[in-house]
Every structure is written in C-alpha cells, then in structure tokens.
C-alpha cells in the first residue's frame, strides 16, 4: 500500500496522470496482480492533491479494468495476466454511460430552443434565473402531481417534490431516514449512486438474495429480522445493471412484507417510464414508499430533474429541507422547460420516441450478440452480459478498451461477494444505430476470440 506515483513529468489532467502511472507500473511489474493499493485519502495526502481527483482516477482505473474494489477491503490491482497498455486510450465508442438515446423524433434540441424562445417572449426568463423554492412551489408541484397521477394515484401537491436529480433525492432521503451505522437493504448488485450516497451518510448496505424475478421474499424476511434495516432500496423496473423487472406478484409480496414490518421502501423509478406496464411500488405501498421518478433515463440527464412522491406532508417538508441543505434548489430554466412540456404533452412524445429508439437498439444488440448469453429488457438502455470462459471481466474490459470500447464491470455495482463475471453494456450513448452496431460487432468478435485468461 506504499505506492506513490511520479506525476510531475506527465502532461494532462492530474487524474489521468495517476491512471497513466498506474498503467505503466503494472506493465513494468512494479505493481503486481492483486496488490493492495493506497486508500483514496492516503494517495491524495501523499500526492498533495484533493480527494476528488484521486477518486476520479481510481474510478477511471476501474473502468479500464486495471483495478478492482472489494467491499470493505479496499482497492487492488486487477487479477489479470494481460500486460496493461502503456498509453491511455480514449474509447471511440463509450458504452459505459447509461444514457438515453436521442432520436430525431424526440427533437429535444429543437424543443429546448423553441421553449426558451417562448419563455423569453412571455417575459418569464428573469424568474427562471432567480432563487426557487426547494422542492418546488405549490403550483409547480401540482402540475407535476397531475402528470404523475395516472401511474401514482396518490400523487398530490402535499406529497410530491421536485428535486435536482435522483442522486440529490437519494441523499436527502437517506439523511432523513437514517443515522450513521444504520443498515439499508438492497439487491446484491445495485446503482453505484446509492453506494456513493450511503458512503457519505456512513450507512451499511446489505444485499438481499435475488432470483430472475428480483429479491426473494424469504431472504428479505430474514434480512429484516437479522439487520433491523431503516429502509429497502430497489430499482424494480429495468434494474441497473441486471435489467430485471420485478413482476406484479413479487411486488405485492414484497410490499406486504414491508407493510407488516413497517420498513420504508426507496423506489428508484429511473426507468419506469420506459415500461408503462410495470406497476410502481408507490401505487401498491404509498404510505411507506419514497418514489423518485427521474427524467435522466427517459428524457435527458442534463435536465437534472426528479419528481419524488413521499409518504406524507411531514416527510415532504423534511426532504425539502435536505434539498435546500445539499443543493438549494432545482435549475429554474430546466424546470420551466419541463413544465411546458408537461402541459403541452411534449414530454410524452419525447419519452415515446426514446422508448421506441431503445427498442430498436435492443434488436440490434440481439442481432450482433446472437449466440452469447446476456440479459435485457425490450425497452431498456443497457444489457447485462455474462462473460464466457476463459474471459475474466477485468481482462475483457481491458481488452475491449484497447480496441476503443468502454464498458463497466460488475464490481462497480457489487454490494456483496461473490461478484458475477459480467459487464454492463449501455446502448443509448452511441450517436447512431450504425455506431452502436459497429461497437457491438467489436464486442462480439472479442467474445468469440477467447483471448482471456483462466478465471481464478
């Protein structure tokens, strides 16, 4: 753990200089496979850099397959027999970011241009640039609640909040419900943003065993009795990363169990609008569910908007205080645009176009990866690819990275051991279907090549 890289003679941003030094030291043998690396704080202190820079460097190293993070143990050099590439490569096709595609039919850029023009003509632009009420004004919340009500029958002005993205909502909810050291239950593989928020709140995440339909009721009951959790966190529709959508029967069983035990549910509904057939937990268990309906995966992450239904008005006030403390407010111009889209139903047209494009990209993936084992959802933005022997996830990620393809290994999502030998492949970030097919063709050829090492 005494590794201290030399950065002064390297060009570029500090975080990339750290990654470059790590790459070279692995290739030269200075760092060996499985070696324990310094903690983020230790390396930041030794290099005289801020913690954020080192954290970004470690995240990039993990993305490139150079390192592995083990829950509760730290960061290690990946168990790979391949020589690392001395020079950093910027992926030509970054399939690591789970973005919604932007089809021409959605016309988001055009709608933004026309919307801002209309706001300016109406003399409302100045108000958009002022401070807003945390959680939204009563009028704004009522308009959002009206739009949500077909999916969330209990949505009303006293229980709906507008937050600057689900990440802010998650942190505010966790800080409201918990104290340091408390337990939050989740799936064994979960959204990395939850892991980050739980780390800031100093909470313990405990994974609940799952099957192809989501968390197992018996395992959930045992975890509730053993750990006395403060909440259960789920991405129940098009789960990130496994793509599982919990069927209604399983949802009802989970909701009944939470109700009997008085355990709140944090429902991350990032992908729910892509699958209108899925019944939200907030419609089954409204008095215990904190449901965050994000626009990041069904419209655009740049809007930085999430609509949150909470159990009651008191919780709405407390969560609003958390929003004020952490982010102050939403971005006024983005909120004004979105409210216009809600009123003229443009938002429904945007979501429908993105849903249709996602479906077409899933068909491309099915064609390109025919014969390979992976999981998907017909309207989802990603696939969950099980890697064949002799590939390890680290070797495969490093291999395709050298070919210009960025993917994410399962370790990024892991809460518990063992970690599956799989990667997430995002289909939405590619600029076009042709670009996506080219990238998937490289992945398929790599899977067939069998150039990896034996899994250990």
From TrEMBL:
The keyword Transcription applies. PROSITE patterns: HTH_GNTR. The lineage of its organism: Bacteria, Pseudomonadati, Pseudomonadota, Alphaproteobacteria, Hyphomicrobiales. It comes from the Bacteria. This is DNA-binding transcriptional regulator, MocR family, contains an aminotransferase domain. GO terms for molecular function: DNA binding; transaminase activity. Residues 12-80 form the HTH gntR-type domain. Keywords: Aminotransferase, DNA-binding, Pyridoxal phosphate, Transcription, Transcription regulation, Transferase. CDD domains: AAT_like (cd00609), WHTH_GntR (cd07377). InterPro entries: Aminotransferase_I/II_large (IPR004839), HTH_trans_reg/aminotransferase (IPR051446), PyrdxlP-dep_Trfase (IPR015424), PyrdxlP-dep_Trfase_major (IPR015421), PyrdxlP-dep_Trfase_small (IPR015422), Tscrpt_reg_HTH_GntR (IPR000524), WH-like_DNA-bd_sf (IPR036388), WH_DNA-bd_sf (IPR036390). It comes from Filomicrobium insigne. SUPFAM superfamilies: PLP-dependent transferases (SSF53383), Winged helix' DNA-binding domain (SSF46785). In the C-terminal section; belongs to the class-I pyridoxal-phosphate-dependent aminotransferase family.
